[in-house]
Design a protein that fits this description.
Layout: H1 7-12, E1 25-27, E2 33-35, H2 36-44, H3 68-86, E3 102-104, E4 109-111, H4 113-116, E5 126-128, H5 129-172, H6 174-205, H7 209-221
Antiparallel strand pairs: 1-2, 3-4, 3-5
Helix pairs in contact: 5-6, 5-7
Length: 222
């Protein structure tokens, strides 16, 4: 978080689950707000009735709308955080002693103005760090939504398969049981892998812009 942003303001724009600025915030019935993805992941782990992660009040909601005001305020705070980092001493170019405000899309690095026009980088594609962060976050949100939708669809398939499996086990005996167990194990493994991918994408989305950009190349390769 950022010392230039009032602490109370930061707190109001921070998700109590991931402890970062809100991304796609939603508000539950008790009035507490969370990142939508954080809330769903938290509820996925609940063995009983879904409750607010803060006050534990039970919730009947399962379809939320984005809190637009919180989303806009969190976006403003995140941009202020990025600007504070970009203007800090830690972000100065070691060669030219200027702040690195430019993102090189070809080799995924932060550059100062002089470095971006050097022979090494002049033919590369460049944009502002803020623009690169926004584009990457939008891309990750899309992949995250796709992964979650696929995961939820697979869960429904597994539930339906459980019902069918029970009926078939009764009718066809132990031989079919082994085949069905093997098939179900494969489906469960796919479900686990999808969930891990979703959690990883979510974790990356929630990181500060500069960290998210640094980890981009490795994550996309995987």
């Amino acid at each position: 978080m950022d010392s230039d942003i009032p602490e109370n303001f930061q707190k109001e724009l921070t998700c109590a689950i991931c402890l970062n600025y809100f991304t796609d915030p939603v508000t539950v019935g008790c009035g507490h707000s969370f990142c939508c993805s954080c809330l769903y992941v938290s509820w996925d782990k609940e063995e009983s009735r879904p409750c607010c992660p803060v006050c534990r009040e039970p919730s009947e909601q399962n379809n939320f709308k984005t809190n637009v005001i919180l989303k806009n305020l969190a976006s403003m705070a995140r941009k202020a955080s990025l600007q504070q980092f970009l203007s800090s001493e830690d972000n100065r170019c070691g060669l030219h002693q200027e702040t690195r405000q430019i993102f090189c899309e070809d080799d995924r690095s932060l550059l100062c103005l002089h470095c971006s026009s050097s022979q090494e980088h002049e033919a590369h594609r460049h944009c502002s760090v803020g623009e690169a962060a926004e584009e990457l976050r939008a891309y990750l949100y899309g992949r995250q939504d796709e992964t979650r939708a696929f995961y939820e669809a697979l869960q429904l398939v597994l539930q339906e398969e459980d019902k069918k499996n029970l009926e078939r086990l009764i009718e066809e005996g132990s031989k079919l049981s082994e085949q069905l167990k093997k098939y179900q194990a494969e489906m469960i493994e796919k479900s686990i892998n999808l969930r891990a991918m979703y959690d990883e994408l979510m974790g990356m989305c929630l990181k500060p812009d500069e960290e998210m950009l640094k980890e981009l190349e490795d994550k996309l390769r995987r």
